[in-house]
Amino acid sequence: MRYDTIIIGGGLSGLCCGISLARQGQQVAIVSAGQSALHFCSGSFELYGRCENPLEGIASLPKEHPYRKMGIELTASYAEQIKDIFEAAAVKCTGEATRNHYCLTPIGVIKPVWLTLNDYARFESPDRIPWRKVALVNFEGYLDFYPQFIASGLAKYGVKSDIHSLSLTAFDNLRESSTEMRATNIARIMTGEILEQIAAYLNSHAGDAEALFLPAAFGLFDDTAVAELRAMVSLPLFFIPTMPASVPGVRTQIQLKNYFQRIGGTYLLGDNVVSGEIENGRLKSVKTANHGNMTLSADNFVIASGSFFSHGLIASQESIREPIFGLDIYADRVREEWYDKDLYSHQAYMGYGVVTDNKFRCSIDGKCIENLYAAGSILAHQNALDEGTGGGVAITTALFVADEILRSR
Amino acid sequence: MRQNGNNHYDVIVIGGGVTGAGTARDCAMRGLRTLLVERKDFTAGATGRNHGLLHSGARYAMTDQESASECIRENRILRHIASHCVEPTGGLFITLPEDDLSYQTKFIKACHRAGIIAKAIDPKEAILMEPSVNPDIIGAVTVPDGAIDPFRLTTANIMDAQLHGADIITYHEVTGFVKSQNRIEGVRLRNQSGEESTYYADVVINACGIWGMHIAKMAGVEVNMFPAKGALLIFGHRVNNVVINRCRKPADADILVPGDTISLIGTTSSRIPYEDIDKNDVTPEEVDILLREGSRLAPILSQTRILRAYSGVRPLVAADNDPSGRNISRGIVCLDHAERDGVEGFITITGGKLMTYRLMAEMATNMACRKLGKKAHCQTASTPLPGSEPSKESKRGKSHIIELGIEQKAAKGRHGTMSRYIHSHNAIDDALVCECEQVSVGEVNYAINSLHVHNLINLRRRTRMGMGTCQGEICACRAAGLLGKANNCAEKSLNDMAAFLNERWKGMYPIAWGDTLAEVQFTSWLYKGVCGLQPDKGEGINEEKEQR
């Protein structure tokens, strides 16, 4: 099988890159193992979380950082372009690259972010939360949503909360098995009559609250259920992300994947690239677990297989490697250098990844593979947690790589 | 809540390890008004940092006949009184091609001298009995080893001590003694908020393991101890069902023990300075030795996911006439400081091992009774612990257990007959907090209400929550939610959760490669990233760095 570009990895970065290329006329295939970091996404994306204006903050990052490799101007331009892609894919969100806004995390921390999905709680500043009192509603027996923590977080900024526990017979089937009460399973049954029951409960229990906050367990495939519920409820209603699996994350992944397929992309789900054939400094083809000896060939390739969590990088007792091609990586040699003994301190391993040139092209033994690009969290010299850059790096490097590929023709 | 109306007791036991808990139980059962004080949580020291091996005594048969005989006697007693903490797995002593097979004959004879049933079997039979064992073995001996859960064992002793009227205070550190002339009359305590209190007793028993040296010094007596650190690894699933030992002189990583859902390899042995007894770190070298030697016992270990590394400190006591520490005893040391040092009302019980905790408790309690002029016989060798009493259910045969859900079976395994106090049979209580270890909401609430749970680390030790393959990834937040609700303090629960996750990391970084590194990256993204969790930089949580 032959494509213009093959992308290894179907998470946020792989999908954004694939969509950008397909929109510009390429035949693209994405090979995806399945789950990605999107599956525990919070409903918000970060560009740079350590200062008010992300674009200004980027300038202070080290020059090997992916943002610095692209430059501030291009980073800003891709941060703008993604809005168009998200809109086309029906991922509805808002935010500005020049000014962070704030979202609520599952444990009630108020955190600066770049983009937030439209049905999620957000405010321009923690000191200017538009409500004096809110109602936090959980489902009886649902353990991955923490109204007490959220109430405590809001109280720090002077917002009062009433906590309600909503019991529905509709949950009885889910509760039959003790592991079924998860956001994604709950979201599946949130339709029709159940939404009406919930709306009735909310309307009668809201009291003097000015807004309603619910766990993000509505609308797994699209926002129909969200719109229906909102239409029936008299007060403003917002969602707060839960512990995984994340409904907004899964929904975003599905929407991006559907859009990619709609514009002609091929999404090979549940498959893994196992090896590649390199000749004269170019990757000719790859083999996957499901396709056996049949090779997939393309003019260009993108590796967006993620960091350790997604097995884009593998650490053994002795060393760290990129498992498919053995790409050159940046990592410390001695195991004791990989980590800090305090979980909350800077962890060196988070910054490990494949090293690239300024076009994000990978290399093996110092020799550039001219048509193999890397995007997203597999790139070295970024630390999503220290910098608050996770989603932003995934998105902007993906779009940058797509443009490089188009330019290379 | 204290049961005693005032601050005066017959006996104060210092130390919430298994020896202290056992001693408090024995004292209380003999009718003594008893108080147990612990500076942190139960099982925070060596009790929670060992193999969890129900020794047959065979390991000591060649080197220490006295310890070997003590072990096999206590082995038989524990199977009876602590049946819900014991798994009678049986054990093997294997000889590998590089070992001397003639050692086996001497070993079996030594076992028999100590009263341990040891039987040489055909290596092929041994492989059938335990398929994970190194197939190259040239010799195998069966012994009555087993697995014992030190957390459950300690909790059951504490519970029974309380049922017999004892008072228990955790998170109170001894800061000094009330002394009048040459008599110890009480202890001064300080809790974690710095509040001080004083309790009085006719006899104070120092059951603090390696920390007993420091306690003794406060009482004005010298007990010369040598801390010996042992490191262990926990594997992500139950590799073996039978304890595997190496049939040679005791050495590094020569015992592989199955326990609940996991297997443990250990130990290394190294002297450490006394100042380091609270460090509990495991070096990359120790990890490498454990993996290399462990894989000789069961080759599959080299490809098995490691969950955690941890270490504990054995309290080795130097003989009184030998300050250099060359002549060190691994046996039980029960010191009457009146006789030895002229300090009345003070006893130190130390040395020994998990296996002999009950015997140590008996010896210390006998001494206390003598001092108090109390004539009461020890009953701990025959009276089952709470959870291990013969139950009506067991007479009903196996049929009832089939009716139980998985989480109820797991809880029954953990709490024995006490599991009847766990709310179940409704969807809310049966919902799982910890999916790896099948810990339900009902079990968590039972532990919070009945088992001295102040934080998530306590909860883990009482229930196994967070001890499974994901090391608390999802259950930390769920349990923090329940604890926050029970204590009505969200902020404290979040700080507690931050500390709990950091504590889990302590046992993971020495083995941070492969799936462990992938898992911790996920945990970090989730808690630091998605949740925005930050540790409390202000006061900090004064929790020990427990590892198991």
Short description:
The complex is a heterodimer of chains A (409) and B (548). Chain A folds into two domains: 248 residues, FAD/NAD(P)-binding domain (3-Layer(bba) Sandwich); 111 residues, Rossmann fold.
The CATH superfamily of the largest domain in chain B is known as: FAD/NAD(P)-binding domain
**What Rg of chain A do the Cα atoms give?**
22 Å
Tell me, rounded to a whole number, the average pLDDT of chain A: 95
Largest interface, chains and sizes: A-B, 53 and 53 residues
CATH architecture of the largest domain in chain A: 3-Layer(bba) Sandwich
**Oligomer class:** heterodimer
What does this protein structure show overall?
The complex is a heterodimer of chains A (409) and B (548). With 409 residues, chain A is α/β, with parallel strands linked by helices. Chain A folds into two domains: 248 residues, FAD/NAD(P)-binding domain, CATH 3.50.50.60; 111 residues, Rossmann fold (3-Layer(aba) Sandwich). In chain A, 29% of the residues lie in helices and 24% in strands. Chain A contains twelve helices and 22 strands. In chain A, strands 1, 2, 13, 14, 15, 16, 21 and 22 form an eight-stranded mixed beta sheet that branches. In chain A, helix 1 runs parallel beside helix 12, helix 4 packs across helix 12 and helix 8 packs parallel to helix 9. The longest helix of chain A has 18 residues. Chain A is globular, with a radius of gyration of 22 Å. Chain B is of the alpha+beta class. Chain B folds into three domains: 166 residues, FAD/NAD(P)-binding domain (3-Layer(bba) Sandwich); 153 residues, D-Amino Acid Oxidase, Chain A, domain 2, CATH 3.30.9; 139 residues, no CATH class. Chain B is 36% helix and 22% strand. Chain B contains 19 helices and 23 strands. In chain B, strands 5, 6, 7, 13, 14, 15, 16, 17, 18 and 19 form a ten-stranded mixed beta sheet that branches. In chain B, a hairpin with an 8-residue loop joins strand 14 and strand 15. In chain B, helix 1 runs parallel beside helix 6, helix 1 packs across helix 10 and helix 17 packs antiparallel against helix 18. The longest helix of chain B is centred in the N-terminal third of the chain and has 17 residues. Chain B is globular, with a radius of gyration of 23 Å. At the A-B interface, helix 5 and strand 17 of A face helix 8, helix 14, helix 17, helix 18 and helix 19 of B.
